Amino acid sequence: MSVTFVIGGSRSGKSTFAELKANEYGEKVLYIATAVITDQAMADRVKKHKEQRPKSWKTLELYSDFHTLTNFNEFNESDVVLIDCMTTLIGNFMFDSKLDFDNCSVDEVNNLEKRIINNVISLIDICNDNNKKLIIVSNETGLGVVPSYYMGNYFRDISGRTNNRIGQESDYMYFIFSGIPIKLKHKGEMVKWPQDF
């Protein structure tokens, strides 16, 4: 039905903005949490996110196999699907791959990236096919220092290309900068590249 993409830096306020949008879009919200609790810091982040969300929202902890969403009542009964966030999803895929990023081939990394993007596109497709308003949250990872190790470089590049694809597929897009939303794309409107770029 529509895809809204919310992107910004770490702790920029993007999750809060996405949750406000979800409330605006409908009452029956499904929150898809991509985080896997691996340490105390992540547990604290998850706890804070849970406390921030309305109690009436349904939650699924999922970061792959989105084609199976129609098997879940939480999905079928929702009007709005909010997934937070893409960069955590990408990190999970990279961890699950068991690749040695210092020594693996570029083809292996490219295949991993294709799997990630295919999963994200399947999420967009299943939401569109089932008349759900989808909100996708992601970190902008390309504005910082270039990582000095292979895994960090691959993570940044895969995140950038995945975000790029989501941006193309989205109807609405917002960049959150220090808690301030900046509208980048509105259905039917998009900044075009100059002819001589």
TrEMBL record:
Gene3D superfamilies: P-loop containing nucleotide triphosphate hydrolases. CDD domains: CobU (cd00544). Its EC number is 2.7.1.156, 2.7.7.62. It comes from the Bacteria. Keywords: ATP-binding, Cobalamin biosynthesis, GTP-binding, Kinase, Nucleotide-binding, Nucleotidyltransferase, Transferase. Pathway: Cofactor biosynthesis; adenosylcobalamin biosynthesis; adenosylcobalamin from cob(II)yrinate a,c-diamide: step 6/7; Cofactor biosynthesis; adenosylcobalamin biosynthesis; adenosylcobalamin from cob(II)yrinate a,c-diamide: step 5/7. It catalyses: adenosylcob(III)inamide + ATP = adenosylcob(III)inamide phosphate + ADP + H(+); adenosylcob(III)inamide phosphate + GTP + H(+) = adenosylcob(III)inamide-GDP + diphosphate; adenosylcob(III)inamide + GTP = adenosylcob(III)inamide phosphate + GDP + H(+). One of its GO terms (molecular function) is adenosylcobinamide kinase activity. The keyword ATP-binding applies. Catalyzes ATP-dependent phosphorylation of adenosylcobinamide and addition of GMP to adenosylcobinamide phosphate. Belongs to the CobU/CobP family. This is Adenosylcobinamide kinase.
